[in-house]
Write a structure and sequence with these properties.
Blueprint lengths: L10 E5 L3 H12 L3 E5 L5 H18 L5 H9 L1 E3 L11 E4 L5 H12 L7 E4 L6 H5 L8 E6 L8 E6 L5 H13 L3 E6 L6 H17 L5 H10 L7 H8 L1 H14 L10 H9 L12 E2 L5 E2 L14 E3 L4 H13 L4 E2 L9 E4 L6 H8 L6 E4 L9 E5 L5 H11 L6 E4 L7 H17 L5 H12 L5 H8 L1 H15 L8 H9 L9
Parallel strand pairs: 1-2, 1-4, 2-3, 4-5, 5-6, 7-8, 11-12, 11-13, 13-14, 15-16
Antiparallel strand pairs: 6-7, 9-10, 14-15
């Protein structure tokens, strides 16, 4: 079917004028399209139009658009009194409550109003596009158009093909997305689409390791910011979005994937959700807040002054041995070079995916003197260490004091396969590989969507390349062996590229 997505008089209908609907109206009007908006709450659409007009005027004041363009965009926005007013729209997108029955009822009514050539789109963030369209008479002209909040600032829009969506529909939406000055990424229908799937690796794995007693909310956030370069740690992010958004979406994705272990939710999130401890919006979440809504976080304790008389570094992981030995030499430590540690030396191991206990037992090392150091990530802004359940406190303090002696903070966590950063990054990468393997999206588009939609320092596939595909694979394979939990099994996309020694972004014909 011919659909001119570039026509000057293109009219976009927007139903639902909450935060998402308002944002869609703004970028549509700013992109030169006519917009018709409606909300079931009396007066809501008029309020939204006034709000968008102010946002456009503010954009002109800041110089991001001219006053003439802002005035013209505002003039292109109209408020509809009923669904019948949408009969001449070329596309209608809904941004109403996340309720399947409500969405189906709305689109069922719209089918009887708009022309057969009108595209119907949903902005749902977690529901199946195919499922919403299943009851329609014309599901072939239905697709997902998923924006991110706040819409005017978040450049990404996911264009989602339902099972019956015809190609012309998604091609038109890609053009319309660009007219809205967004960066559209096309993908096939899947629970959580693309960005929300990857985001589960970040938040869920963090929750699992805190639930296991490995670390604290604050320390996980510190490590993911300082060690891995994320703008916010996983718990800071959930505080901002709110568990009333994150937890139901996580549960829905898990159920829609038929209980795929990679997306298994955690009791830490569920209990807070049920108690109404949601984050900033409830003034209490993973953190408490002061009167100015600043999180109350206890300062990190001062680093111990103790240092070991000598240090022995395991050579089981050659790369880790080389990196850590170079750092210790720079810090002025006495590094032993013998095949075995002396009787009183601090023993350091550099596991990839293993816990400290496994290293000590497998290498025949004294568990009371053994401390693990994460060398898989740069140790410039923060370092992470952990002991065995038997490690003497004096040995942990000596390791902490030595590794913090140049002013770089050290996070001490309990024994865990994969430390903190290895676990979380590996899960993010693994889910990205799963999306690529299922052909939900092209490899380059996966990384593009995640960097734009989540502001991660790297997309999941590039993250794997930066750390090392074989190393990420090793983390997952080792954790899978220790935990005997299929949530950690490496995806076949990753395994093959690790074996072949190529980038995770390598496409497959």
């Amino acid at each position: 079917m011919a659909f001119d997505a570039k026509r000057a008089d293109l009219c976009v209908g927007v139903i639902g004028t909450g935060a998402m609907g308002r944002g869609i109206v703004q970028v549509s009007a700013a992109g030169g399209m006519h917009v018709l908006m409606m909300d079931t709450r009396p007066g809501a659409a008029d309020e939204a139009r006034d709000f968008v007009a102010k946002m456009l005027a503010r954009a002109a004041e800041k110089g991001s658009m001219s006053k003439a363009d802002a005035d013209a965009a505002t003039a292109r926005i109209r408020v509809a009194k009923s669904l019948a007013d949408f009969k001449d729209c070329h596309m209608v997108v809904e941004a109403i409550v996340e309720n399947l029955d409500a969405k189906r009822a709305l689109f069922g009514e719209l089918e009887g109003v708009v022309s057969p050539e009108c595209i119907l789109a949903t902005n749902t963030s977690s529901m199946s596009v195919t499922t919403i369209a299943a009851k329609l008479k014309t599901p072939q002209r239905f697709a997902g158009l998923h924006f991110f909040n706040p819409v005017p600032l978040m450049k990404l829009v996911e264009v989602i093909d339902g099972l019956l969506t015809e190609n012309w529909v998604s091609e038109a939406l890609m053009v319309i997305g660009k007219r809205m000055t967004r960066e559209p990424v096309r993908l096939t229908d899947a629970p959580g689409f693309l960005v929300n799937q990857v985001g589960r690796g970040f938040t869920l794995e963090a929750s699992h390791l805190v639930y296991e007693g490995v670390s604290t909310f604050a320390d996980v956030d510190r490590v993911m910011r300082d060690v891995c370069g994320f703008r916010m740690g996983p718990f800071e992010l959930m505080e901002l979005t709110g568990l009333d958004v994150t937890q139901p979406a996580s549960t829905l994705i898990y159920k829609q994937f038929f209980h795929e272990p990679r997306y298994r939710p955690n009791l830490i999130m569920q209990s807070r959700y049920e108690a109404g401890v949601l984050g900033r919006k409830s003034k209490k979440g993973f953190y408490d807040y002061d009167a100015d809504m600043k999180p109350i976080v206890a300062p990190e304790p001062a680093a111990p002054t103790a240092k070991p008389a000598s240090v022995w570094v395991s050579k089981a992981e050659s790369q880790g041995h080389e990196v850590l030995t170079a750092l210790l030499t720079k810090l002025g430590a006495t590094v032993e070079t013998g095949a075995k540690p002396s009787a009183k030396a601090l023993i350091l191991v550099t596991p990839v995916g293993k816990d400290t206990t496994s290293c000590a037992v497998e290498e025949g090392l004294d568990p009371k003197r053994t401390v693990a150091v994460d060398t898989l990530f740069p140790m410039v802004k923060r370092r992470t260490i952990m002991g065995t359940p038997l490690t003497d406190a004096s040995m942990k303090e000596a390791a902490h004091g030595l590794l913090a002696s140049d002013g770089v903070p050290v996070t001490v966590c309990r024994d865990s396969p994969g430390f903190i950063a290895q676990r979380i990054v590996a899960m993010v990468v693994n889910i990205g590989c799963s999306i690529a393997q299922s052909r939900t999206a092209e490899p380059a588009d996966i990384d593009k969507a995640v960097t734009l939609g989540l502001n991660y320092p790297n997309g999941p596939l590039k993250f794997g390349d930066v750390v090392g595909v074989d190393r990420i694979y090793q983390v997952l394979a080792t954790m899978n062996s220790i935990y005997a939990d299929p949530r950690y099994r490496p995806n076949i996309w990753m395994r093959r590229r690790a074996q072949l020694g190529v980038s995770l972004l390598t496409p497959e014909p």
